[in-house]
Amino acid sequence: MELAAVLKQRFVPFTDEQRIQIEGQRDGERNQPEMGSFSPAPFEQALIANGERKAQRAYQKASARISRLQPVYQMLQRRYNDMAGRQKAVAERFEARKRELGRDVSMPFPSRFHWGLILFLGIGEFPLNTVVFRLFGEPEFLTYVMASTLAITIPLLGLFIGLNMRQSLPRTAGNILIGLLTPIAVGAALFGISVLRGVYISTQAGAPDALQTSQNEMQYILFSLNILVFFAALVSSFYAHDPDEKLDVTHSSLVFLDRKRNRVRHKLFTLGMKLNGEIQRAKSQIDQIRALTNQRVALYRQTNMRFRQLLPPPSFRRDPDYPSLKLWEEVPLDELQGVDAGVDR
């Protein structure tokens, strides 16, 4: 029976609660460690060493994960700080120009809607020109090339001409010119659409000369629609820029840097949250391992003292000693949490 008990005890992990109590009772009956000893008992040292090995493994695994994230975070942090410095310099020039002019930026049409409209006009221009160039009987890919060329060129020409008019003409003259041309362009397009509707009705009715008439009138209709697309791009560009070129350029640069910096800030905040999460998880895991080791040591000491004949040694009044680990500092995220004030887009 004693041999069976010895064999059973040998295969039981020494961190098992029953094993700890058995070892504590055995050392207590032997008054081990001695009454004046400042060194822990061998079994207590084994418990501490076992817990520390687990803590070291957790520390090494966490270090590998954190070491992969820290360089990326530091790179994004340097990039973010560099962009913040550039944005500050542009903002100072923007504010200085505003003080010189005595006014803020004047853009009745928001820039983001302006670029969205230009893109929409280009997309709408493509099928319109595709229908026209298919009449030439050229191969399909040449039709697409010619149609896409006009779909890109017409809105961009309207954009640049509108910008030039905004910043070269006096404000009053530009507003008068736009006010006169707008009803003309819109009226011509509406008239063309009305003519197109009449041609369609005549064609459906089967008039003998409807086909020849429709071919002649289709030229005017397509021309008026292209003029409307061009003028829509011109007017949107005219009202989406400031009359002062320097103020407009610095404002555009400030908006661009602000958006780019916000994208970097979002990436930096996301990566910082992940990095801090890894650090907190590693610290919590190490603390849990050491807390469990303290519980096992306390169980051993309580059992030892219960079966001792002599007073407990001084080592029982000291907490277990663990080697210090160079833990990681969490990255600051307070600055990245708030949304930047930005500029008027």
Characterise this structure.
This protein has 345 residues and is an all-alpha fold. Helix content is 78%, strand content 0%. The protein contains nine helices and no strands. α3 runs antiparallel to α8 (245-307), α4 runs antiparallel to α5 (140-168) and α5 (140-168) packs across α7. The longest helix is centred in the C-terminal third of the chain and has 63 residues, at 245-307. Residues 1-8 have low confidence and may be disordered.
Compact description:
The protein is an all-alpha fold. The protein contains nine helices and no strands.
Low-confidence stretches: 1-8
Q: Over the alpha carbons, how many angstroms does the gyration radius reach?
A: 40 Å
Secondary structure tally, helices: 9
Question: β content, as a range?
Answer: under 5%
* Cα distance spanning the termini: 87 Å
**Whole-number mean pLDDT:** 82
**Helix/sheet category:** mainly alpha
Largest sheet: none
Shape: elongated
Percentage of residues assigned to helices: over 70%
Strand count: 0
Secondary-structure element order, N to C: HHHHHHHHH
